[in-house]
Amino acid sequence: MDIKQLLAGLNILLVDDEALGIDSVLTRVGARVVTCSSIEQAQMELGAHAFQVALIDQNLGMSRGIQLALWLYEHRPDVVRISLSGRNADDIRRTLPPDKPDLYAAYLVKSIGPLQIGREIARIMAERRAADASDSPA
User: Fold this and answer.
1) Nearest Cα to Cα of residue 24 among 12, 42, 6
2) Phi, psi of 14 (to 5 degrees)
3) Across the strands, what pairs with 16?
4) What is the pLDDT of residues 25-60, one digit of tens each?
5) Which domains does the chain have, with CATH numbers?
6) H or E, element range at 68
7) Which residues are paired to 83 by β-bridges?
8) Is the pTM of this model over 0.70?
């Protein structure tokens, strides 16, 4: 499957105070994207809409994206959480609580660009769908 087939109709919450064109690229390939610049705004959107993916920037002004990821882990475990940062994945992993190594499905660095971010989301969702299909009774 190509990126358009994998992302078509997917509801993505993009939480980033500097979206850098990510939302427009994801929308062009068929995803429905809601962009928020704060944790509070994201929680309001999560209460009002169903999302399959939350793409969370780790530096949201005075807040940290990990706060939202932890909230999602507890309140909306069905939402796939993806870390988005200017830092590398190892830096982010060091900030994780030891009992939640699976807090994020992936760690993406903003410098890879919007199209590659879309490809990574598509890859993650394809893996999830394949895992769900193998778990279903035949």
Assistant:
1) 12
2) -105, 115
3) none
4) 899 989 999 999 999 999 999 999 999 999 999 887
5) 3-135 (3.40.50.2300)
6) helix 65-75
7) 56, 107
8) yes
State which amino acid sits at residue 136.
S
The pair of structure tokens assigned to 121 is: 């989301």
Sheet holding 32-36, edge to edge: 32-36, 11-15, 53-57, 80-85, 106-109
Centroid of chain to Cα 20? 15
What is the C-alpha to C-alpha distance for residues 56 and 58, in angstroms, rounded to an integer? 6
What is the spatial distance between Cα 22 and Cα 118, in angstroms, rounded to a whole number?
8
3-state secondary structure of 31: coil
Which positions ≥6 away from 39 have C-beta within 8 Å?
Answer: 15, 60, 63, 65, 67, 68, 71
Structure-block tokens of residue 22: 């990510």
CA atoms within 13 A on the CB side of 90: 0
